[in-house]
Amino acid sequence: MKLRLAVWGIFLALCVTPAFADSFHFTNNGLISGGGSDSGIGIVSCLTKVSFDGNVLFSGHVGSIAFDTGSFTGSLLGGGLFNVGTFEIDVNGFGTVLFANNFAGTWTKISDDLFKLVGTFSATVDGLHFNGTTTQFFELENEDGRLTFDDVHGKTCISPSPVPEPGTLTLLGTGLLSMGAFVRRKLAVN
Question: Is the dihedral of CA 129, 131, 101, 56 positive or negative?
Fold first, then answer.
């Protein structure tokens, strides 16, 4: 009975652990540069805060976040979908800490000049695979045929990708079953 309880405890611990994966959060505010056309937009914004699992690591002007929507379908002033874009995070003193060339998502008009961009991306940094999502708000005005951006702000969350380890779990399960059979046989002989 104690062995069964121990096996179930280990199994539950292995199943629950990935739910508590660590994540980085990046906050940006302000516009460094921006441009757009009917084929999409490109924006560089000030990175103002970096936190890890809710603990602030850096704050102030700590770098920049840049994104380009790549292939855009829909209306620039009405909304649409984008894919094959780029997403980049630069931290002062560290350089480019993340670059992804598979940025994709949606672009939605919220009010007269306010837009919301929600995008996802994945990247590999030093052999670690990350998934990220970003939500950006900005004002886009078309004055006299010229696009101007204003009030860019948003948040980006990056988490390590879950790594399936079926071989390791199978090996662990087989070992635990073998130990259980060995203990049971030992008890049956005595």
Answer: negative
pLDDT in tens, 95-109: 888 898 899 999 899
**Rounded CA separation 3/53 (Å):** 35
- Structural contact between residues 96 and 88, judged by C-beta atoms closer than 8 angstroms: yes
- Structure tokens belonging to residue 28: 């940006």
pLDDT tens per residue across span 151-178: 899 999 998 876 666 666 677 778 878 8
Place of tokens 């002033």: 77
Q: What residues contact residue 81 under an 8 Å CB cut-off, 6+ apart?
A: 72, 73, 74, 104, 105, 106, 107
Q: Phi and psi at residue 12, in whole multiples of 5°?
A: -65, -40
Closest by Cα among 4, 58, 5 to 28: 58
Cα 72 to chain centroid, rounded = 21
- How close are the terminal C-alpha atoms of the chain, in Å? 17
**Dihedral (Cα; 125, 131, 135, 140), 10-degree rounding:** 60
Do 58 and 36 contact (CB within 8 A), yes or no?
no
C-alpha–C-alpha distance, residues 154 and 66, integer Å? 12
